[in-house]
Amino acid sequence: xxxxxxxxxxxxxxxxxxxxxxxxxxxxxxxxxxxxxxxxxxxxxxxxxxxxxxxxxxxxxxxxxxxxxxxxxxxxxxxxxxxxxxxxxxxxxxxxxxx
Length: 99
Prior knowledge:
This is Protein kinase domain-containing protein. This protein is an alpha+beta fold. Helices cover 29% and strands 21% of the residues.
């Protein structure tokens, strides 16, 4: 969840992503068996799609502009968990306003 923010310097406080980012998870030899689990792969993909859908359906829509595996944080490795993956790092994001 979201806990708060500071404006100077700009920072946001959220839950700890216990399992780090998707890039490190996929390249870690210790997680090779878990990374090959199709139920987990599908759940991560679903959570990413849900996050992007949420951003794109805001008014105005938010365009992330830097979606990549290091910007996906893993909160769980259990496919049936409430939240498995979240989209992070909005440093390049922009509100899209039609002209």
